[in-house]
Amino acid sequence: MAARAAYVLYNGNLMEKTIMAKNGLKNRSGNPVWIFFTSVKLTVIVLLLLAVTSIIGTLVPQNGTQAFYVHKYGEFFFRLFDVFDIFDMYSSWWFVMLLVLLSVNIVVCSIDKLDSTWKIIFPDKVLFNVERFRRLKNTEMFVSNRNLESLESMCRQLIEKNFSMAVSEETDQVVAIFGERGRWTRIGVYVVHLSILLMLAGAVIGSVWGFKAFVAIPEGTTVDSAFLRGNDAPVELGFELRCNAFSVSFYDTGHPEEFKSSLTVIEDGKESFTRDIVVNDPLRYKGLSFYQSSYGVDSAKSAVFKITSRDSGMTYSVKMAIGETIDIPESGGKFTLDEFVRGYNFRGHNLGEGFVGRLSGNNDSDKSGLDTAHGSMGTQHGEADHSEADHSEADHDHNEAGHSEADHQKAAGRSMNSNETELYIPVKFPTFDKMRRGAFAFEIQDYEKKYYTGLQVAKDPGVLYVYAGFVLMIIGCWITFFMSHQSICVEIRKKIAADADSGKSDDADGGYDILISGTANKNSQGMKLKIAKIASRMRDI
Amino acid sequence: MNSSMILSVTTFVYAFASVLYIGSWTFKKETMAKLGFFVLVAGFTGNTMGIILRWIESYKIGYGHAPFSNMYESLVFFSWTIAVLYLFLELKYHERIIGVFATPLIFLSIAYASLSPSISDKITPLIPALKSNWLIAHVITCFLGYAGFAIAFGFSVMYLVKPLESGSGKQLPNSGEPRTHANFLFARLPSLDLMDELIHQMVMFGFLFLTIGIITGSVWANSAWGTYWSWDPKETWSLITWLVYAILLHLRMMRGWHGKRIAWVSIIGFMAVLFTYFGVNLLPGLHSYA
Ligand code: HEM
Description:
Number of domains of chain B: 2
Helix content of chain B: 55-70%
Number of strands of chain A: 21
Distance between the termini of chain B: 30 Å
Number of strands of chain B: 0
Number of helices of chain A: 12
Distance between the termini of chain A: 47 Å
Largest interface: A-B, 63 and 57 residues
Oligomer: heterodimer
Largest sheet of chain A: 10 strands, antiparallel
Helix content of chain A: 25-40%
Bound molecules: protoporphyrin IX containing FE
Strand content of chain B: under 5%
Shape of chain B: flat
């Protein structure tokens, strides 16, 4: 009851008080559960609990691996935190409970009060009470010597201009003119609270009927499904998506400037359309959105080799596509470029990105520099091996790029004729192939990378509700904070002062006292200024 | 003359303005506060020019982006938003003395930007995720919100340091209310009622803009990464801040809290703002955000 009383006092609005009191009696007499949920104390406590517990999730990193947590907190605290879902606290049962409590609180409160608010907004009849205005503190008074008619019409005009309605009423003291505006603004709070419910509903809809997934598409490749975040289960897209090209541009400082993927949607085997996406401009199609989120080097398209002849000292520059075979100059045999590898194990060291190819048809079979036993040779594609791969664009996909490994496993098992020599030509170590002491040393001058693009795939049918909530929240806050239900009363009275017995006729030549008073359900300071402004306007005329 | 130089000079102009405001309070000389106002306007002009010039410079270098992209730029802009809001208030309420605790904040923010060795004033290019018009809307609204809270904080401190006097008999000219507190020493300070009202006004202003700031941020996140909310520490702390001020509003509107108690809640709220702004970078995380 104390809260309610304080509130009414603050608004200083009599009409409200009576209606509230009536309603209060009706609803409060009932159910204790209902009363519990109408309490603003509950609101404050729940909001406080939400604020305080939210801090935990910013101190303890969320959704990490078990190993990470055990290492960081030790076995005991790991167990303890785990019991309370601290590692995924924002979707834990107790955090969700708090949100549910909040929603019920809002719903019950709104239902409890809507009835009386409704009566204030749409009253059967708007009644003004001069007595009430006379008792208000927000008052301005001055004396005028004009005649009654012009005073009255002037006041009416001013009130009509500043308020949405004006009513004149005869009083025991001559006449009073009432004005008011903004009855409807009392709905503002309900709009704010409704917006919160909408956002929460949107979040629930999104988590039940939506998903977040990831897919990495090498350039030129088509996919028809993505992999759910968390458990990597595949989800069908319902159409096919091809990455035509990926490109990254850099500033002169070396910072990336733009990541761009050209995507083509393919349906029933036919190309539907092609679109470029960049980081802040996703592709949206059939309820799914594709966001540029990471990229990496998948392989290479072609390479330019510098081939140095040991005998003649001549160098040749040759550009080759993957899979291409060339005749080495000076009748040095043939060279086939087999593939690009992201890692290469050479005597226990990973030499990083490079090209693997075959030399054949020459007599140059001294393989001193390179151990070609298949067992020790293998391409590696673990994440740690990517020198440039997997640049997450400020996102969370570090773990998700370990994709197209399968493409490259064949490298380890390629069958080779006995007269063929496998070459590994690393990108980073240009002199590596010289150590083989072959007739020709290969060195990479340049190569054209083939990227994969990492796309975040999201389906979220709840976004619409959340966005509707956003809009309502802003509108509702605006109404609640900056608009109010204001009423004003200008009373024209016979001048009381001077000679007490001259108050006989209505147009007393002693003039009139003009009393202006008003009230608002919020922002009494603003109302005070407004009354002062209106008073000064009346004086001026 | 480049933007960094203009902004360094601005720092000192703001410092001078704060000194004048504080001086006028301690020495009870209104002329100092009057002068302080003009110095503040001068500082604000420099601040504005500095920001515009920096914008132009970024285009000249070829990066071409609004100057809201790193710590330096945001601090400079923070000063600007507090200054613009404060100047508006002083013009509206004609109360010079309310600047005592608000103007030093304008100075502190830009001083931290200009003088801290760990904050670089170099113009750097934008990473792709930041290239969005939502960024501009997000930064401007968030900082307007922070500015509202900063000024509310200034008023709250003022409210709390002003001794609760037992009536010395003097009524303040601007308040006709019966329970006005008047005080001999602080006779020229605005009444507690007015400050209470101003704290409320500033919190509402800040709350509205923080709300819009969080909303634009989430719309932006949704367009860049496909999630409007991912509970990263910065987001979470802005939500915590938002909740603190929502609590304040409910306490005031529903439970009739006023004066000192609201001033304390507003101070707690501003601590949350500061943590959201500076503290979040200290938190551990699985991902290290810049
Ligand atoms: C964070 C989520 C919020 C929750 C859970 C919440 C909940 C509540 C509840 C339960 C009440 C009591 C209703 C009653 O007794 O009639 C209330 C009242 C109120 N709330 Fe909120 N609220 C939230 C946010 C806001 C926001 C953001 C605003 C600011 C615009 C706001 C403004 C108000 C106002 C003005 C009242 C007084 C209602 C009246 O005059 O009848 N609320 N709130």
